[in-house]
Specification:
Layout (H helix, E strand, L loop, with lengths): L3 H12 L4 H8 L3 H9 L16 H13 L5 H8 L5 H11 L19 E7 L5 E2 L5 E2 L3 E6 L5 E5 L5 H15 L5 E4 L6 E2 L2 E2 L3 H8 L2 E4 L9 H14 L8 H15 L11 H10 L13 E6 L5 E4 L2 E4 L8 E6 L3 E6 L2 E7 L7 E2 L2 H15 L14 H7 L2 E2 L2 E2 L1
Parallel strand pairs: 1-6, 6-9, 12-16
Antiparallel strand pairs: 1-4, 2-3, 4-5, 7-8, 10-13, 11-12, 13-14, 14-15, 17-18
Helix pairs in contact: 2-3
């Protein structure tokens, strides 16, 4: 078989009027080869003749299994059909057959109207953040991207619990200064799964007057905008950076987002900040009433005068021992109230299993403990002296005789 270059040369020479016999003689090929090249409408292509291989006797059974289970791993199929040869060779053959049996899931290009939706996700930066106890941990970053403008907001939060997810969402929505008409989530446990919302989520969405959309499985295009940005954060924001704390991360990330939102997006041919006003104009206003979010609980303060929140223990004024106290916490502070008065105020610790003590509480406890250990004085006074006739009267003795 002649090469593609010879095929093109033959056709060019014949087209220029060179006799076919002369072409065959000059190129040292047969006349029939020249004739085939002239009448052929496509370059010559080598096609290997199909011959039976070691895989051929197993092919029919493999096809039957792929018909019922198109995603079954090749290793499992090899075991089921009794293959004892090279697993790499078997896997290559299964890879060629598998596309014939997988169902096709076309992806539509979505158009996002101004103010319609914001995509929400958690991003886990590949960097362990130093914590208060000297350890380091991978912490989640809540990211919200307005779908129309592609405007990005983000903040590192301590946990994936519902309380912290809602606190972080509200903080980012306040930065946006408007409420998107829909918030799209991908079945995050702290938000909800399927048709079931996590506790407190429905109230949060109702107060914002927005709609929560929990996306079905295998629907990446509906949240692809925010997920692509998660990958971009790792390649554009993370390289070369060092963080001393979660607060340091949030400061650096916020500064970088200010610059990133000014860059032109390839798909929209505009920067997110230039499209933000049109996006915000179609969004909903912030709710007129304050939102009561975060960790909230009421407990009776025990003798050790500590309350527990997210695995950490925080001290409380020991004078409140035995009373019901109200515990509340946001992303930054932990506060305890008794009768509406603050009796403890601590910075929230993101490490786990720690004990946080206020020196004032320890001093107060020492004073109370010392007072408790001192014996009580017996009260004396004339008012405790009674007339003996009172006892005679009580026992029925009158004038020295029993009545």
């Amino acid at each position: 078989m002649i090469s593609v270059e010879d095929w093109a040369l033959i056709r060019r020479l014949v087209a220029d009027g060179v006799p076919r016999r002369q072409v065959a003689q000059d190129l040292g090929i047969g006349r029939a080869t020249v004739d085939r090249a002239v009448v052929s409408d496509r370059p010559p292509k080598y096609e290997r003749r199909s011959v039976p291989t070691a895989f051929t006797p197993f092919e029919r059974r493999v096809r039957v299994m792929l018909e019922e289970h198109p995603d079954m791993p090749a290793t499992v199929i090899a075991e089921r059909v009794g293959w004892d040869g090279s697993i790499t060779w078997f896997r290559d053959n299964v890879r060629q057959l598998r596309p014939q049996y997988r169902r096709i899931d076309p992806v539509d290009r979505l158009e996002w109207a101004p103010g319609d939706a914001a995509q929400c996700d958690l991003w886990f930066p590949p960097f362990r953040i130093p914590l208060e106890d000297g350890t380091a941990k991978l912490l989640p970053v809540l990211v919200i991207t307005a779908a129309h403008s592609r405007f990005m907001l983000g903040r590192m939060i301590p946990t994936r619990t519902t309380e912290d997810l809602l606190l972080g969402s509200w903080e980012l929505i306040q930065q946006l200064e408007r409420v998107p008409r829909r918030l799209l989530w991908d079945n995050e446990v702290g938000i909800g799964r399927g048709k079931r919302f996590a506790g407190g989520v429905a109230t949060f969405m109702g107060t914002l007057a927005t709609k929560l959309v929990l996306l079905p499985p295998r629907d990446p295009e509906s949240k692809g905008i925010v997920e692509r940005r998660n990958g971009w954060f790792e390649t554009s924001f993370m390289p070369g950076r060092v963080f001393t704390s979660a607060a340091d991360f949030n400061t650096q990330f916020s500064d970088w987002l200010d610059r990133a939102n000014s860059r032109v997006v390839r798909t929209t041919k505009a920067s997110p900040v230039s499209r933000l006003e049109a996006d915000r104009a179609a969004m909903l206003p912030l709710p007129p009433v304050p939102l009561h979010l975060g960790w909230r609980n009421s407990v009776r303060l025990g003798r050790d005068y500590y309350i527990r929140l997210d695995s950490n223990d925080y001290s409380v004024d020991p004078r409140q021992i035995g009373r019901i106290v109200d515990v509340s916490a946001d992303l930054e502070r932990v506060r305890v109230r008794s009768g509406g008065r603050i009796v403890a105020d601590h910075a929230r610790v993101w490490a786990r299993g720690m004990t946080i003590s206020d020196p004032t509480h320890l001093q107060t406890a020492a004073v109370l403990r010392k007072q408790f250990q001192q014996p009580r004085r017996a009260a004396t006074g004339d008012d405790l002296t009674r007339d003996l006739t009172d006892y005679d009267r009580a026992f029925g003795i009158i004038d020295g005789e029993m009545s």
